[in-house]
Amino acid sequence: MTALDKADGATILRFDNAPVNALDLDLLNVIIDSMRGVEGAVVLTGAGRAFSAGVDLRALADGGTDYAAQFVAALSEAFLAIYDHPAPVIAAVNGHAIAGGCVLAMCADVRLMSGGTIGLTELSVGVPFPVAALEICRAAMGTSATRAALGAKTIDAETALARGWVDELVGKDELLDKALATARELGAYSPAAYAATKSELHKPVRAAIDAGAAADAVVRASWISEETRGRINAFLESLARGR
């Protein structure tokens, strides 16, 4: 589900769930375990043509209440496993980064993108955002987070750069090398100083997430409800009709 490759000065965590690296429970658990087990700088990227197209909606619709409950808890846990990593995290966005895939990119310290589209499309499916996802995106996207979340649209890489969602556009063939070079550059700083600075910068986001426990309980209840399952099935049916 993922591949961990050691590179000079960094570890590459490659999401690998063909065809578009959709997030199911297995992949989320591997991301959590990988991020908690790795030391030093990390580069996140996707296998194939996408970074991650977001939640595996078919698995969520078919998995039943228990699966949905485990999934939504693991989703926030995976975001925070990346966000809280004390060393540099670089997102090498090699293609579409949609919904949960966009949030994964926003969890990184630096975002490089080579192409594809990016955006928060959860509302178009009918699921609310976990608190961790919204607070991380609010910090990373700045004032455009409201338009991103409520508009539920994707934008191209050039627009993402203009809005500050990504830090740099890099050619597809150079993307991974550039991400590794950035990881090595940031990783050359004192690990303790980097971790302390990152922790302090993240403190307002972490406080907001911790304060949002009640809101998250409502979100979890929504994700496991029959109404949400119906919305997801209707969305999947509309996609099938559009093909």
TrEMBL record:
Q: Which UniProt keywords apply?
A: Fatty acid metabolism, Lipid metabolism
The opening ranks of the lineage are: Bacteria, Bacillati, Actinomycetota, Actinomycetes, Mycobacteriales
Answer whether the UniProt record assigns the keyword Lipid metabolism to this protein. yes
Q: Which reaction does it catalyse?
A: a 4-saturated-(3S)-3-hydroxyacyl-CoA = a (3E)-enoyl-CoA + H2O; a (3S)-3-hydroxyacyl-CoA = a (2E)-enoyl-CoA + H2O
What is the official name of this protein in its record?
A: Enoyl-CoA hydratase/isomerase family protein
Q: Which InterPro entries match?
A: ClpP/crotonase-like_dom_sf, Enoyl-CoA_hyd/isom_CS, Enoyl-CoA_hydra/iso
Q: Which PROSITE patterns match?
A: ENOYL_COA_HYDRATASE (PS00166)
Q: Membrane-crossing residues?
A: none
- Natural source organism: Mycobacterium paraterrae
The UniProt entry, under CDD domains, shows:
crotonase-like
Keyword Ribosomal protein part of the UniProt annotation? no
Quote the SUPFAM superfamilies the UniProt record gives: ClpP/crotonase (SSF52096)
What's this protein's function?
Could possibly oxidize fatty acids using specific components.
Similarity section: Belongs to the enoyl-CoA hydratase/isomerase family.
